[in-house]
Amino acid sequence: MRGLMNSVVIAVGAFGFGLAIGTGGAYGKLYGGPIVRDLLEVYTTIVRAVPELVLILLLYFAGTDLINRVLEALGYARIDVNGLVAGIWVLAFVQGAYSTEVIRGAILAIPQGQIEAARAYGMSPGLLMRRITVPAMLPFAIPGLANLWLIATKDTALLAIVGFSELTQETRTAAGQTKAYFTFFMAAGALYLLLTLFSNVIIAQVERWARRGMPRIAGGGQ
């Protein structure tokens, strides 16, 4: 249960920060200058092309070493990066690339007449985003973001490779000490399944709220 709580904390943090990165990345890709768009394209391409395990190892170890080298160059002492914080930001960096594409596609799915009408009324970019873009894109973005949340909950297991005490690492430790491998790994699988089922209930409620006033979709759980 301690490992499960750590996994949930990491998943929530990674998904939240990844969503923030993705929102900025989507707007940068759609409305940024050529350099910004090119840099974001490189970011999303590399992250989606390289296996997540390799990225985690690279960012977790090389990223920590880079931070300390920069601190030493500036005359500061080396620091020990908190494992929880490092885990969250590593997964957030990966989530951000996928969120960028999900949100960008959702924005492009909005009927452009709505955005043009808002601009014709003189709405500022911030007001346009709050009143038009975000509410209109949510029904298109939620399915993809829901998948990213479920991926985030499972990707926490990859942090076991760097020794962080999330659910998989705790399960492996307990199973190794008791030799009850079947019991502990079945329990871990059941906990992942329960987390997924609970998440699906919440996601269905959020999707129903986002699609209020829109036509019902057969088989969509509306």
UniProtKB/TrEMBL annotation:
InterPro entries (UniProt xref): AA_ABC_transptr_permease_3TM (IPR010065), ABC_transp_permease_HisMQ (IPR051613), MetI-like (IPR000515), MetI-like_sf (IPR035906)
Per the record, its GO cellular-component terms are:
ATP-binding cassette (ABC) transporter complex
Cellular localization per UniProt = Cell inner membrane; Cell membrane
The record's keywords, sorted A to Z, are: Cell inner membrane, Cell membrane, Membrane, Transmembrane, Transmembrane helix, Transport
Q: Which domain of life is it from?
A: Bacteria
Concerning CDD domains, the annotation shows: TM_PBP2
**Transmembrane segment boundaries:** 42-62, 132-152, 180-204
- Residue ranges of domain ABC transmembrane type-1 in the record: 4-203
Topology relative to the membrane = Multi-pass membrane protein
Q: What is this protein called?
A: Polar amino acid ABC transporter inner membrane subunit
Which species is this UniProt entry from? Answer: Mesorhizobium alhagi CCNWXJ12-2
